[in-house]
Amino acid sequence: MSEILVLVEHADGDVKKVTLELLTLARSLGEPSAVWAGPGYTDAAKARLAEYGAAKIYVASSEEIVDHVVAPKAELLAKLVSDSSPAAVLVAATAEGKEIAGRLAIKTDSGVITDAVGVSEGFVADQSIFGGGVNVRSRVTKGTPIVAVRPNSTAPVAEPGAGAEEKVEIALSDSARAAKVVERVKQERGARPELTEAAIVVSGGRGVGSGENFAIIEKLADSLGAAVGASRAATDAGWYPHQFQVGQTGKTVSPQLYIATGISGAIQHRAGMQTSKTIVVINKDPEAPIFEIADFGVVGDLFQVVPQLTEEIEKRK
Ligand SMILES: Cc1cc2nc3c(=O)[nH]c(=O)nc-3n(C[C@H](O)[C@H](O)[C@H](O)COP(=O)(O)OP(=O)(O)OC[C@H]3O[C@@H](n4cnc5c(N)ncnc54)[C@H](O)[C@@H]3O)c2cc1C
Questions:
Q1: Of 243, 268, 301, which is best to mutate to test ligand 1, by the most ligand atoms within 8 angstroms of its C-beta?
Q2: What is residue 316's predicted lDDT score, i.e. its pLDDT?
Q3: Cβ(297) – ligand 1 distance below 6 Å
Q4: Which of 65, 91, 256, 303 has the smallest count of CB within 10 Å of its CB?
Q5: Residue positions forming the annotated binding site
Q6: Running DSSP on this structure, what letter comes out for residue 31?
Q7: What is the mean pLDDT of the chain?
Q8: How confident is the model at residue 62 (pLDDT cuts 50, 70, 90)?
Q9: Count of CB atoms within 10 A of residue 225's CB?
Q10: Which of 253, 186, 250, 174 is nearest to 221 (CA)?
Q11: CA 35 to CA 2: how far, in whole Å?
Q12: Which residues, including other chains, have CB under 8 Å from residue 127's CB and lie 6 or more apart?
């Protein structure tokens, strides 16, 4: 069976959900080999990768890999492409993943497709463009297909693989060492789950009215153990940080439950949340386009509905 390399995204030793999605996708195309770059590899990480079908796990755990943000990972993948001639390489379409994909394409003289939302037989990649208005199918015609797949495009499904470990030594080139990390400041992580990995997301839009008012969105989110998201209108107004923006130019989420409050449902917002399993809308305008994709809708003032909903949820705990 043809080998598909999957670059592992990990933080603090934990394998990120997007990697489980990529392994699931890779299983439908061939035999996945996970590629772990940098320190932090543990037995738990190995078990997780094998649980989702990694037949092989390449481990390059040199500290040096994280001393130089992106370039070493591209060099590592290029070495593996040259050594084992895989049928394709899948990376997450995160900012870092896309840069690695581009560098790898140059190094291996291959074609690259970014922001895919699916990959099917023959490595034909689906891309959803113009805010989900147009679907494009593309195929790499030169070299090893390199595809950056958007998080939350595939539902992760466990199916065990052999998880055979293979250590990889890599001698970085001078150009990979040309930019070195001089300081790392860890971002404060609150108690809430990470936006793209959360099972429930509560988002607020322009209807929330101010940054202070986002407190009621946060309260509802906390009552459900959810992440908080925001529309671009809310982030552009400075009411909520940009890293929480959902949509075409923000994050793509696909939780079990998405609660949209005070959001009209512009196509660019929908592009980032329309694959959520259940969508609940709270909006005072019954004509708001977001109701078109709602499973449940409440026509009402969010300043009345949201606190009542939070209170009811808290009572039932
Ligand atoms: C290139 C490009 C990229 C973009 N990328 C993104 C993106 O990634 N994400 C994104 O979100 N947008 C994006 N946008 C912007 C997008 O087009 C919309 O402008 C934006 O999504 C609107 O945000 P909103 O729904 O919060 O605001 P509005 O469209 O103003 O809607 C506010 C809603 O709140 C409701 N409301 C008001 N008061 C209350 C209340 N008290 N109770 C209940 N409901 C109330 C109103 O009825 C209305 O439906 C992008 C635009 C462009 C051009």
A1: 268
A2: 87
A3: no
A4: 256
A5: 206, 231-232, 245-249, 262-269, 283
A6: E
A7: 94
A8: very high
A9: 12
A10: 253
A11: 16
A12: 113, 115, 116, 117, 135, 136, 137, 138
Largest CA distance in the chain: 62
pLDDT in tens, 26-40: 999 999 999 999 999
Calpha distance 111→105 (Å, rounded): 6
pTM for the full predicted model: 0.79
For residues 240, 243, 247 and 251, what is the CA-based torsion angle, rounded to 10 degrees?
-150
Render 136-177 in DSSP notation, one character per residue.
EEEE--SSS-EEEE-TTSS---------EEEE------TTTT
248 lines ligand 1 (CB under 6 A): yes
Count the neighbouring beta carbons within 10 Å of the beta carbon of residue 17. 17
In order of their start, the domains of the chain are 3-167 (3.40.50.620), 195-315 (3.40.50.1220)
Question: Atom 51, ligand 1: which residue's CA is nearest?
Answer: 268
Q: 299 pairs with which residues across the strands?
A: 283
> How distant is the alpha carbon of residue 128 from its chain centre?
15
Instruction: Please choose, from the candidates 267, 256, 248, the residue with its C-alpha nearest in 3D space to the C-alpha of residue 150.
Output: 248
Tell me if ipTM is over 0.90.
yes
**120 three-class SS:** strand
The β-bridge partners of 259 are 202, 280
**pLDDT tens track for 253-270:** 989 999 999 999 999 999
Element (H, E) at 310: helix 302-315
**In contact, 239 and 214? CB cutoff 8 Å:** yes
Specify which residues 22 forms β-bridges with: none
Binding site members for FAD: 206, 231-232, 245-249, 262-269, 283
Any idea what DSSP says for residue 196?
A: G
Distance spanning both ends of the chain, measured CA to CA: 49
